[in-house]
Amino acid sequence: QFSGMASSSSLELAGMDKYMQAQQQQDQVAFKVRAKRGCATHPRSIAERERRTRISDKLRKLQDLVPNMDKQTSTSDMLDLAVEHIKGLQSQL
């Protein structure tokens, strides 16, 4: 009788072990990893960040080329100054 109890409890333990493993696998599948703050994971967000970076780099280069343009100049003012500078250079030709 004692050996019968041991085998039934070992079967219960084996069943519980399988159940716990199945639960852990389900938890791992259902668990969604969140990105850290400021770190996008969606391809569209990543592409948009790269686009903004390229635009910022080009605007910095434009600031270096056009006189009387400082870092506080807004983007629209920067473009206006660049257009006026190019027009001035063309009129000198």
TrEMBL record:
It is found in: Nucleus. InterPro entries: bHLH95_bHLH, bHLH_dom, HLH_DNA-bd_sf, IND-like. CDD domains: bHLH_AtbHLH_like (cd11393). SUPFAM superfamilies: HLH, helix-loop-helix DNA-binding domain (SSF47459). Keywords: Nucleus, Transcription, Transcription regulation. Residues 39-89 form the BHLH domain. GO terms for molecular function: DNA-binding transcription factor activity, RNA polymerase II-specific; protein dimerization activity; RNA polymerase II cis-regulatory region sequence-specific DNA binding. It holds the Pfam family HLH. One of its GO terms (cellular component) is nucleus. Its main location: nucleus. Belongs to the bHLH protein family. This is BHLH domain-containing protein.
